[in-house]
Design brief:
This protein has 80 residues and is mainly beta. The protein is built from no helices and six strands. The protein has strands spanning 15-16, 23-26, 29-34, 40-47, 65-70, 74-78. The chain has a six-stranded antiparallel β-sheet with strand order 1-2-3-4-5-6, with no helix packed on it. The radius of gyration is 12 Å and the shape is globular.
């Protein structure tokens, strides 16, 4: 998964941050790829339903969810 971005990941987005290609927006919120390495990566969701999130690529939600993806597993963390 080294080098994974929203440009090479099948993901329904309206906007991809062209600065680093690691953030994307769609109707549901903002998504950020982090901790990408050879064996895993993490996508954190910043939902539009969070009242602290203004729905822009530069803002962050207070309540997030993250998915840690490996070749054999998918695990979720709810940061509410």
């Amino acid at each position: 998964f080294t080098g994974i971005t929203f440009n090479n990941l099948s993901f329904a987005s309206d906007t991809i941050d062209q600065g680093d290609l690691l953030s994307a927006l769609n109707a549901n919120g903002k998504y950020v790829i982090s901790a990408a390495g050879a064996t895993q990566f993490t996508i954190t969701a910043h939902p539009n339903s969070d009242p602290d999130f203004d729905g822009t690529i530069g803002d962050n939600a207070t309540n997030t969810m993250a998915a840690n993806v490996t070749r054999d597993d998918l695990s979720w963390t709810d940061n509410n």
